[in-house]
Amino acid sequence: MQDSRLFELARSGRRLPHWLVVLVMSVVFILAAQVVGGIGLAFILLVLNSTSASGTGPDTVQAVRRLLAVDSALEQTLLLVCLFGPIFILLWVWLALVEKRGLWTLGLERQAAAQKYLRGLGVGLVMFGLSVGISALPGYMAPEQTGDGPRGLAALGGVALVFLGWMVQGAAEEALARGWILPTLGARYRPWIGVAASAGLFAVFHSFNPHLGPIAVLNLFLFGLFTALYALSEGSIWGVCGVHTAWNWAQGNLFGLQVSGLASPAGTLFDLMETGPDLITGGAFGPEGGLAVTAVLLLASFAVWKLAPRLT
Hints:
312 residues, mainly alpha, 68% helix, globular
């Protein structure tokens, strides 16, 4: 992995930033994206709510929105796109002005992009499905009898719509963590430093989520470790963008569980609830706070580690 294509792309620029610059700018990118995106989101929601309240929206559009129950899904999709989408713009500006390289050098080359992304989606779905299966086998998962938001076929429109939001959110976090932090530090220092830093910062960036516990922190780090190894072995971040998207979408909108401590109001196809010990199922934080996910992430990381060249 020391010869990963990601490191070659990072070295294609004029300079590799110092680790302190990477740390500070990572925080700046996230905070700036939240501020800029939050302002844009507030404006969009104000316009949408004003239109809806005044009844000036086309009757056909209003009827379709009611039929597909996409109001909540639309708001969540806009939230994900507005708060995370600006990360791409900020990275593009930084790379162009400071490092003198293109956004595509984050591991977004066109070759086999669709194939890698679709494979990543499959990997993410299988991994999270296994996590749910581990909890379900001893009877620690059960159908939710009551809950907010549409479920089943009634939620299909919203569930499909919010998938687009998860695509942007997952790709933005991966572009920052595995596309920039990992190869920048790995190329300037050592590969394992890039891996550890990208996984550690990924966990730190989620440390303000509600109901966070020690196992959740461990699992966030392990998710960052797995995606780092996956990205290095593939020499691209297309795959991990797919993994991240499928993982979050499956949690919130396929199985109806908490996503890193946060609920997804867009609806769910299969509405499940944890009935077993929080140590296994994750409790209020969702599956990412339990040992079932720990087992899957450790197994997946070990598999990638054994299938790819060793780090040095």
